[in-house]
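Box 3.1 — From sequence to structure: Flagellar hook-basal body complex protein FliE
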Amino acid sequence: MDIKSNSLYAQMQSMSMQAMGNKLPAVGGDDMAVDSLGKVNSSSSNFGNMLTDALKTVNELQKDAGEKKAAFEMGDKSVSLGEVMIASSKSGIALDATVQVRNKLVEAYKEIMSMPV
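Predicted structure (token representation):
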């Protein structure tokens, strides 16, 4: 498989521009969280918001599964065993995915911190 580095780089740049809505990067560049005027780059704040939303979603799935389990155990006829199992599986998968993302972030942080300056 022959990959030309220039074409790959051009594709990555075009995808980056597409993801940013064809806007020019901030003064500090894409890699910097803060530009020269001290303003936070929108891509880093968007990542933070996305991460916060994902954690809230996982929390909501956990709460929903807990509520359905409690309702089923109390004998609520409107909640079936299938619904409880599906909600429990969804919350378990979401939690596992969150742990994997956390592990990757910690691994990346450790790798960056061990780089020589």
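Summary of the box: The chain has a mean pLDDT of 79.
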